[in-house]
Automatic annotation (TrEMBL):
Top-rank lineage group of the source organism: Bacteria
Domain named ABC transporter: residues: 6-227
Family of the protein in this entry: Belongs to the ABC transporter superfamily.
Source lineage: Bacteria, Pseudomonadati, Pseudomonadota, Alphaproteobacteria, Hyphomicrobiales
Keyword Glycosyltransferase: no
PROSITE patterns in the cross-refs: ABC_TRANSPORTER_1, ABC_TRANSPORTER_2
Gene Ontology molecular function: ATP binding; ATP hydrolysis activity; transmembrane transporter activity
Keywords recorded for this protein, A-Z: ATP-binding, Nucleotide-binding
Gene Ontology annotations for the cellular component aspect, listed alphabetically: plasma membrane
InterPro entries tied to this protein: AAA+_ATPase (IPR003593), ABC_transporter-like_ATP-bd (IPR003439), ABC_transporter-like_CS (IPR017871), ABC_transpr_LolD-like (IPR015854), P-loop_NTPase (IPR027417)
Record protein name field: ABC transporter ATP-binding protein
């Protein structure tokens, strides 16, 4: 059953824009993310992809409209256990090793006992076991994004929101990251929403949302198998 994780209705988001002016970014947006969904959120730079992801994950609130998380609970209960973010810019803690970075959300959830074991398990799936004791500064961009993805998946969150996770990677590194993510999530109920400029990334996901001039268009794509 495709259970609703996020329901957004008539969402508008505007920002102050100089004296007495506002910048409307999102206008009357309706959307739903259900269990197991794989959504590509596309749109030109500045179209509002990050803004929408932040609203869907409860990091930001709409100016008007309503949003709820029927299967997840209240906004303040979403993170880190139920909703996980992968940010556009590097977000690993520089003083923590790879395995410590990935274990961190489990520690925040008071799951100290098996945090390191779980972190190592997910790092193995991302082909990163040999980098466990490295610091973020010792990683390539592609390795760092794999660690960030591993950290998002380690808690068993039911919704992963990834903001251009491949945006700074070359195409073969980007493809490898996406292959790993889709294979690891294959058959899982966890939903994935990826904001991307990259049409090859978007083509790998079965639902496509595009933002243009504040409006969200929904295109359902034929299901594609991960490589
Ligand atoms: N906190 C803020 N205050 C004011 N304006 C903002 C704020 N956050 C976003 N904006 C504006 O909202 C618009 C949409 O920004 P957003 O980052 O959501 O776009 P995007 O599609 O994710 O862009 P990119 O692909 O370049 O990351 C931009 O014009 C941006 O300047």
């Amino acid at each position: 059953m495709n259970e609703p994780l996020v329901l957004a209705s008539d969402i508008c988001r505007s920002f102050p824009n100089g004296k007495n002016a506002v910048l409307p970014v999102l206008t009357d947006i309706d959307c739903r993310v259900g269990t197991g969904d794989r959504v590509a959120l596309v749109g030109v730079s500045g179209s509002g992809k990050t803004t929408l992801l932040h609203i869907l994950g409860g990091l930001d609130e709409p100016t008007s409209g309503s949003i709820s998380w029927p299967a997840l609970g209240a906004r303040e209960e979403l993170r880190p256990g139920k909703v996980a973010f992968v940010f556009q810019t590097p977000s690993l803690f520089p003083a923590l090793t790879v395995v410590q970075n990935v274990a961190l959300p489990l520690l925040l959830m008071d799951k100290q006992n098996d945090a390191t074991t779980k972190a190592r398990e997910i790092l193995a799936k991302f082909e990163l076991l040999d980098l466990c004791e490295k610091l973020p500064e010792e990683l390539s961009g592609g390795q760092a994004q794999r660690v960030a993805m591993a950290r998002a998946l380690v808690t068993g969150a039911r919704l992963i929101l990834a903001d251009e996770p491949t945006g700074q990677l070359d195409s073969s590194t980007a493809t490898h990251l996406l292959d790993l993510v889709l294979n690891i999530m294959d058959g899982s109920d966890t939903a994935l929403v990826i904001a991307t400029h990259d049409e090859t990334v978007a083509a790998r996901l079965n639902t496509r949302w595009s933002i243009d001039a504040g409006q969200l268009r929904h295109d359902v794509m034929p299901t594609r198998k991960s490589a």
